[in-house]
Design brief:
The protein has 187 residues and is α/β, with parallel strands linked by helices. The protein has one domain (8-186): Nucleotidyltransferase, domain 5 (2-Layer Sandwich), CATH 3.30.420. Helices cover 48% and strands 22% of the residues. The chain has five helices and six strands. It has a six-stranded mixed β-sheet with strand order 1-4-3-2-5-6. Strand 5, helix 2 and strand 6 (116-120) form a beta-alpha-beta unit. Helix 3 packs across helix 5 (157-186) and helix 4 (137-148) packs across helix 5. The longest helix has 30 residues, at 157-186. It is globular, with a radius of gyration of 16 Å. It starts with 7 loop residues before the first strand and ends with a helix. InterPro entries: RNaseH-like_sf, RNaseH_sf, X-over_junc_endoDNase_Mg_BS, X-over_junc_endoDNase_RuvC. Keywords: Cytoplasm, DNA damage, DNA recombination, DNA repair, DNA-binding, Endonuclease, Hydrolase, Magnesium, Metal-binding, Nuclease. GO terms for molecular function: crossover junction DNA endonuclease activity; DNA binding; metal ion binding. Belongs to the RuvC family.
Length: 187
């Protein structure tokens, strides 16, 4: 049902196989990316795309559609972690409310299944992906392409953002594992 991919790239990563679902919440276009981390170095992109709703539909119907599609992603790919962009500032109140509602759907669906849920701010994602928290969208998209070993930048931008969120979690988790291992070795 969802756009699948078998693109993979070697990166320093987690020590076991895990699946990360990255979500870039949005009411009209909700980006998603499913990345599988295998062993310590292999990241495979299993799916990438957007969940779309029509602005002509009533808000409850749009939220119900997105909720159902998020549940289907969870059923199909069985992620161990759901990483969602955390919006803490938005100049457009209406946009902020709809993004918050969609974010809540993803957080709730993952929590009901007992999955690990992580939220990352846009600056955290930019820093993890490009090394600079002030990077622009083009720089982030270029690094997503490079880190996943893709021939082209993922489209649409919402899908690329979801991949960046998932990669941010993988990088953050890898760092946490390395810190823990260093503490264990020094103890």
């Amino acid at each position: 049902m969802f756009a699948r991919s078998a693109d993979s790239v070697n990166l320093a990563g987690e020590s076991k196989t895990s699946v990360v679902l990255g979500i870039d919440p949005g009411l009209t276009r909700c980006g998603y990316a499913v990345l599988e981390v295998q062993g310590a170095t292999q990241i495979t992109m299993r799916a990438l795309g957007v969940l779309r709703t029509s602005p002509d539909q009533a808000l409850p119907q749009r939220l119900a559609e997105i909720s159902l599609e998020i549940e289907e992603l969870l059923d199909e790919f069985h992620p161990s972690v759901v990483a969602v962009e955390h919006i803490f500032f938005q100049s457009n109140v209406r946009t902020a409310m709809s993004v918050g509602q969609v974010s809540g759907l993803a957080l709730s669906a993952a929590a009901r299944r007992g999955l690990q849920v992580e939220q990352y701010t846009p600056n955290q994602v930019k820093l993890a992906i490009t090394g600079w928290g002030g990077a622009d969208k083009a720089q982030v998209q270029k690094m997503v392409k490079q880190r996943l070993g893709l021939n082209t930048i993922p489209k649409p931008a919402d899908a690329a953002d979801a991949a960046a969120i998932a990669l941010c979690h993988i990088a953050s988790n890898s760092l946490a594992i390395k810190i823990h291992e260093a503490k264990v070795r020094s103890a």
